[in-house]
Amino acid sequence: MATFFQLLSESPTFFIALSGLVGLLVGSFLNVVIHRLPKMMEREWRHQCAELNSQPDTSTQQNTDTTTALAPYNLHIPRSACPQCGHKISALENIPILSYLVLRGKCKGCGTAISMRYPFVEAITGILSAFAAWHFGFGMDAVGAIVFVWALIALTFIDLDTQLLPDDITLPLLWLGIIFNMYGAFTSLNNAVAGAIAGYLVLWSVYWLFKLVTGKEGMGYGDFKLLAAIGAWLGWPMLPLVIMLSSVVGAVVGITLILVMRHGRNIPIPFGPYLAGGGLIALFWGQQLTQGYLHLLVMP
Q1: Do 286 and 238 meet the contact criterion of CB atoms below 8 Å apart?
Q2: pLDDT tens digits, residue range 248-264?
Protein backbone atom coordinates (compact mmCIF):
# COMPACT_ATOMS: atom_id res chain seq x y z
CA MET A 1 0.00 0.00 0.00
CA ALA A 2 2.84 2.37 0.86
CA THR A 3 4.39 1.65 -2.55
CA PHE A 4 1.07 2.46 -4.27
CA PHE A 5 0.76 5.84 -2.54
CA GLN A 6 4.41 6.52 -3.30
CA LEU A 7 3.70 5.84 -6.98
CA LEU A 8 0.75 8.25 -6.89
CA SER A 9 2.83 10.98 -5.29
CA GLU A 10 5.84 10.51 -7.58
CA SER A 11 3.94 10.07 -10.85
CA PRO A 12 1.50 12.94 -11.55
CA THR A 13 0.46 11.29 -14.81
CA PHE A 14 -0.56 8.10 -13.05
CA PHE A 15 -2.44 10.06 -10.37
CA ILE A 16 -4.33 12.09 -12.98
CA ALA A 17 -5.17 8.99 -15.05
CA LEU A 18 -6.35 7.06 -12.00
CA SER A 19 -8.48 10.00 -10.86
CA GLY A 20 -10.08 10.19 -14.29
CA LEU A 21 -10.78 6.45 -14.32
CA VAL A 22 -12.33 6.56 -10.84
CA GLY A 23 -14.33 9.58 -11.98
CA LEU A 24 -15.76 7.60 -14.89
CA LEU A 25 -16.85 4.82 -12.53
CA VAL A 26 -18.32 7.29 -10.05
CA GLY A 27 -20.08 9.05 -12.92
CA SER A 28 -21.90 5.79 -13.67
CA PHE A 29 -23.00 5.65 -10.03
CA LEU A 30 -24.04 9.31 -10.11
CA ASN A 31 -26.46 8.45 -12.91
CA VAL A 32 -28.14 6.09 -10.45
CA VAL A 33 -28.18 8.75 -7.73
CA ILE A 34 -29.65 11.35 -10.10
CA HIS A 35 -32.43 9.01 -11.18
CA ARG A 36 -33.27 7.26 -7.91
CA LEU A 37 -32.72 9.73 -5.08
CA PRO A 38 -35.71 11.96 -5.98
CA LYS A 39 -37.92 8.86 -6.22
CA MET A 40 -36.66 7.70 -2.83
CA MET A 41 -37.48 11.13 -1.41
CA GLU A 42 -40.98 10.98 -2.88
CA ARG A 43 -41.56 7.58 -1.27
CA GLU A 44 -40.40 8.92 2.07
CA TRP A 45 -42.70 11.96 1.80
CA ARG A 46 -45.70 9.74 1.03
CA HIS A 47 -44.83 7.53 3.96
CA GLN A 48 -44.63 10.54 6.31
CA CYS A 49 -47.92 11.98 4.99
CA ALA A 50 -49.64 8.63 5.49
CA GLU A 51 -48.39 8.47 9.08
CA LEU A 52 -49.53 12.02 9.83
CA ASN A 53 -53.00 11.37 8.39
CA SER A 54 -53.29 7.86 9.85
CA GLN A 55 -53.87 6.47 6.37
CA PRO A 56 -52.52 3.37 4.60
CA ASP A 57 -49.03 3.92 3.28
CA THR A 58 -49.35 3.73 -0.51
CA SER A 59 -45.61 4.21 -0.92
CA THR A 60 -44.74 0.88 0.66
CA GLN A 61 -47.79 -1.25 -0.13
CA GLN A 62 -49.44 -2.66 -3.20
CA ASN A 63 -53.16 -2.45 -3.93
CA THR A 64 -53.83 -6.21 -4.06
CA ASP A 65 -56.21 -8.64 -2.40
CA THR A 66 -53.49 -9.46 0.11
CA THR A 67 -51.54 -6.30 0.92
CA THR A 68 -47.82 -6.94 0.65
CA ALA A 69 -44.83 -4.68 0.91
CA LEU A 70 -43.29 -3.36 -2.25
CA ALA A 71 -39.79 -4.43 -3.13
CA PRO A 72 -37.03 -2.28 -1.59
CA TYR A 73 -35.99 0.73 -3.64
CA ASN A 74 -32.70 2.46 -2.91
CA LEU A 75 -29.39 3.25 -4.58
CA HIS A 76 -28.43 -0.44 -4.68
CA ILE A 77 -31.74 -2.30 -5.07
CA PRO A 78 -33.26 -3.14 -7.53
CA ARG A 79 -30.69 -3.86 -10.20
CA SER A 80 -30.65 -1.33 -13.05
CA ALA A 81 -32.96 -2.26 -15.92
CA CYS A 82 -34.39 -0.84 -19.14
CA PRO A 83 -37.57 1.12 -18.30
CA GLN A 84 -39.21 -0.08 -21.54
CA CYS A 85 -38.64 -3.84 -21.57
CA GLY A 86 -37.25 -4.53 -18.09
CA HIS A 87 -33.99 -5.97 -19.45
CA LYS A 88 -31.52 -6.23 -16.55
CA ILE A 89 -28.31 -4.30 -17.19
CA SER A 90 -25.33 -6.64 -16.92
CA ALA A 91 -21.88 -5.59 -15.70
CA LEU A 92 -20.54 -5.65 -19.27
CA GLU A 93 -23.37 -3.32 -20.36
CA ASN A 94 -22.52 -0.90 -17.55
CA ILE A 95 -18.93 -0.01 -18.43
CA PRO A 96 -18.76 3.80 -18.52
CA ILE A 97 -18.97 5.28 -22.05
CA LEU A 98 -17.56 2.11 -23.67
CA SER A 99 -20.78 0.10 -23.20
CA TYR A 100 -22.80 2.96 -24.68
CA LEU A 101 -20.59 2.98 -27.76
CA VAL A 102 -20.63 -0.81 -28.18
CA LEU A 103 -24.42 -0.90 -27.81
CA ARG A 104 -24.68 2.08 -30.20
CA GLY A 105 -26.80 3.91 -27.67
CA LYS A 106 -29.58 1.30 -27.62
CA CYS A 107 -30.95 -1.21 -25.13
CA LYS A 108 -29.66 -4.71 -25.80
CA GLY A 109 -33.08 -6.17 -25.04
CA CYS A 110 -35.50 -4.04 -27.05
CA GLY A 111 -33.42 -1.56 -29.02
CA THR A 112 -34.86 1.51 -27.27
CA ALA A 113 -32.56 4.51 -27.50
CA ILE A 114 -30.54 5.24 -24.36
CA SER A 115 -30.28 8.89 -23.37
CA MET A 116 -27.02 10.61 -24.26
CA ARG A 117 -27.01 12.06 -20.79
CA TYR A 118 -25.75 8.82 -19.24
CA PRO A 119 -22.38 8.82 -21.03
CA PHE A 120 -22.25 12.62 -20.74
CA VAL A 121 -22.46 12.47 -16.93
CA GLU A 122 -19.81 9.74 -16.90
CA ALA A 123 -17.53 11.73 -19.21
CA ILE A 124 -17.87 15.07 -17.43
CA THR A 125 -17.28 13.39 -14.06
CA GLY A 126 -14.15 11.68 -15.35
CA ILE A 127 -12.81 14.82 -17.04
CA LEU A 128 -13.39 17.10 -14.05
CA SER A 129 -11.92 14.50 -11.66
CA ALA A 130 -8.77 14.27 -13.76
CA PHE A 131 -8.61 18.06 -14.05
CA ALA A 132 -8.91 18.45 -10.26
CA ALA A 133 -6.09 15.93 -9.79
CA TRP A 134 -3.92 17.89 -12.25
CA HIS A 135 -4.83 21.28 -10.76
CA PHE A 136 -4.22 20.43 -7.10
CA GLY A 137 -1.68 17.64 -7.39
CA PHE A 138 -1.44 14.55 -5.20
CA GLY A 139 -2.83 15.12 -1.70
CA MET A 140 -5.95 15.68 0.33
CA ASP A 141 -6.70 18.95 -1.47
CA ALA A 142 -7.24 17.00 -4.69
CA VAL A 143 -9.35 14.39 -2.90
CA GLY A 144 -11.54 17.10 -1.42
CA ALA A 145 -11.88 18.90 -4.75
CA ILE A 146 -12.89 15.69 -6.50
CA VAL A 147 -15.56 14.91 -3.89
CA PHE A 148 -16.82 18.50 -4.20
CA VAL A 149 -17.05 18.08 -7.99
CA TRP A 150 -18.97 14.80 -7.71
CA ALA A 151 -21.54 16.30 -5.36
CA LEU A 152 -22.10 19.36 -7.56
CA ILE A 153 -22.59 17.20 -10.65
CA ALA A 154 -25.25 15.11 -8.90
CA LEU A 155 -27.02 18.20 -7.54
CA THR A 156 -26.95 19.92 -10.93
CA PHE A 157 -28.76 17.15 -12.78
CA ILE A 158 -31.21 16.40 -9.96
CA ASP A 159 -32.18 20.07 -9.89
CA LEU A 160 -32.56 20.16 -13.68
CA ASP A 161 -34.88 17.14 -13.53
CA THR A 162 -36.93 17.87 -10.43
CA GLN A 163 -36.09 21.39 -9.15
CA LEU A 164 -34.95 19.73 -5.93
CA LEU A 165 -31.61 19.94 -4.11
CA PRO A 166 -31.70 17.01 -1.68
CA ASP A 167 -30.58 17.53 1.91
CA ASP A 168 -29.00 14.07 1.64
CA ILE A 169 -26.31 15.69 -0.52
CA THR A 170 -26.22 19.39 0.41
CA LEU A 171 -25.92 18.93 4.18
CA PRO A 172 -23.14 16.30 4.15
CA LEU A 173 -21.39 18.46 1.55
CA LEU A 174 -21.52 21.43 3.92
CA TRP A 175 -20.04 19.46 6.83
CA LEU A 176 -17.36 17.91 4.61
CA GLY A 177 -16.29 21.40 3.56
CA ILE A 178 -15.82 22.42 7.18
CA ILE A 179 -13.95 19.18 7.95
CA PHE A 180 -11.53 19.59 5.05
CA ASN A 181 -10.91 23.20 6.01
CA MET A 182 -10.09 22.27 9.58
CA TYR A 183 -6.67 21.67 8.03
CA GLY A 184 -6.83 24.67 5.70
CA ALA A 185 -7.37 22.70 2.50
CA PHE A 186 -9.07 25.53 0.58
CA THR A 187 -9.47 28.30 3.14
CA SER A 188 -9.17 28.84 6.88
CA LEU A 189 -11.64 27.25 9.27
CA ASN A 190 -12.95 30.68 10.29
CA ASN A 191 -13.57 31.60 6.66
CA ALA A 192 -15.29 28.24 6.07
CA VAL A 193 -17.68 28.64 9.00
CA ALA A 194 -18.39 32.25 8.06
CA GLY A 195 -18.89 31.13 4.45
CA ALA A 196 -21.48 28.56 5.46
CA ILE A 197 -23.38 31.11 7.53
CA ALA A 198 -23.13 33.90 4.95
CA GLY A 199 -24.01 31.59 2.04
CA TYR A 200 -27.26 30.57 3.69
CA LEU A 201 -28.24 34.01 4.94
CA VAL A 202 -27.57 35.82 1.65
CA LEU A 203 -30.04 33.76 -0.39
CA TRP A 204 -32.42 33.46 2.57
CA SER A 205 -32.58 37.29 2.66
CA VAL A 206 -33.08 37.50 -1.10
CA TYR A 207 -35.86 34.91 -0.87
CA TRP A 208 -37.80 36.83 1.76
CA LEU A 209 -37.25 40.22 0.14
CA PHE A 210 -38.53 38.88 -3.19
CA LYS A 211 -41.52 37.24 -1.48
CA LEU A 212 -42.43 40.40 0.42
CA VAL A 213 -42.24 42.52 -2.76
CA THR A 214 -43.92 40.13 -5.21
CA GLY A 215 -45.81 37.67 -3.02
CA LYS A 216 -44.06 34.82 -4.86
CA GLU A 217 -41.25 32.46 -3.98
CA GLY A 218 -38.21 33.17 -6.15
CA MET A 219 -36.13 30.16 -5.11
CA GLY A 220 -36.17 27.13 -2.85
CA TYR A 221 -34.51 26.42 0.48
CA GLY A 222 -32.20 23.97 -1.26
CA ASP A 223 -30.48 26.91 -2.96
CA PHE A 224 -29.69 28.43 0.46
CA LYS A 225 -28.13 25.16 1.61
CA LEU A 226 -26.14 24.70 -1.59
CA LEU A 227 -24.59 28.17 -1.35
CA ALA A 228 -23.89 27.50 2.34
CA ALA A 229 -22.07 24.31 1.34
CA ILE A 230 -20.06 26.18 -1.32
CA GLY A 231 -19.19 28.80 1.30
CA ALA A 232 -18.05 26.06 3.69
CA TRP A 233 -15.67 24.70 1.03
CA LEU A 234 -14.33 27.93 -0.44
CA GLY A 235 -14.81 30.46 2.37
CA TRP A 236 -16.85 33.65 2.54
CA PRO A 237 -14.44 35.75 0.38
CA MET A 238 -15.38 33.60 -2.63
CA LEU A 239 -19.14 34.00 -2.22
CA PRO A 240 -19.46 37.34 -4.10
CA LEU A 241 -17.68 35.77 -7.08
CA VAL A 242 -19.84 32.63 -6.96
CA ILE A 243 -23.06 34.68 -6.75
CA MET A 244 -21.97 37.00 -9.55
CA LEU A 245 -20.98 34.16 -11.88
CA SER A 246 -24.12 32.13 -11.21
CA SER A 247 -26.39 35.16 -11.55
CA VAL A 248 -24.86 36.26 -14.87
CA VAL A 249 -25.01 32.78 -16.37
CA GLY A 250 -28.52 32.22 -15.01
CA ALA A 251 -29.74 35.51 -16.46
CA VAL A 252 -28.22 34.80 -19.87
CA VAL A 253 -29.65 31.27 -20.01
CA GLY A 254 -33.04 32.41 -18.73
CA ILE A 255 -33.35 35.20 -21.30
CA THR A 256 -32.21 32.83 -24.06
CA LEU A 257 -34.84 30.26 -23.08
CA ILE A 258 -37.55 32.91 -23.12
CA LEU A 259 -36.55 34.50 -26.43
CA VAL A 260 -35.33 31.52 -28.43
CA MET A 261 -37.19 28.53 -27.01
CA ARG A 262 -40.32 30.44 -25.95
CA HIS A 263 -39.90 29.30 -22.37
CA GLY A 264 -42.79 30.75 -20.37
CA ARG A 265 -41.82 33.52 -17.96
CA ASN A 266 -43.93 31.92 -15.24
CA ILE A 267 -42.18 28.56 -15.62
CA PRO A 268 -39.48 28.34 -12.91
CA ILE A 269 -35.85 27.81 -13.91
CA PRO A 270 -33.68 25.94 -11.36
CA PHE A 271 -30.90 28.08 -9.91
CA GLY A 272 -28.88 25.18 -8.45
CA PRO A 273 -26.97 24.36 -11.67
CA TYR A 274 -25.76 27.97 -11.92
CA LEU A 275 -24.66 28.00 -8.30
CA ALA A 276 -22.82 24.73 -8.92
CA GLY A 277 -21.16 26.17 -12.02
CA GLY A 278 -20.10 29.27 -10.11
CA GLY A 279 -18.75 27.07 -7.33
CA LEU A 280 -16.67 25.00 -9.75
CA ILE A 281 -15.20 28.08 -11.45
CA ALA A 282 -14.36 29.57 -8.06
CA LEU A 283 -12.78 26.27 -6.93
CA PHE A 284 -10.32 26.21 -9.83
CA TRP A 285 -9.85 29.88 -10.74
CA GLY A 286 -11.38 31.87 -7.90
CA GLN A 287 -8.12 33.33 -6.61
CA GLN A 288 -6.99 34.47 -10.05
CA LEU A 289 -10.38 36.00 -10.91
CA THR A 290 -10.61 37.81 -7.58
CA GLN A 291 -7.07 39.16 -7.81
CA GLY A 292 -7.67 40.27 -11.40
CA TYR A 293 -10.86 42.07 -10.39
CA LEU A 294 -9.16 43.81 -7.47
CA HIS A 295 -6.28 44.78 -9.74
CA LEU A 296 -8.71 46.46 -12.13
CA LEU A 297 -10.27 48.40 -9.26
CA VAL A 298 -6.98 49.86 -8.07
CA MET A 299 -5.66 50.71 -11.55
CA PRO A 300 -5.33 54.49 -12.05
Answers
A1: yes
A2: 887 777 777 677 666 55
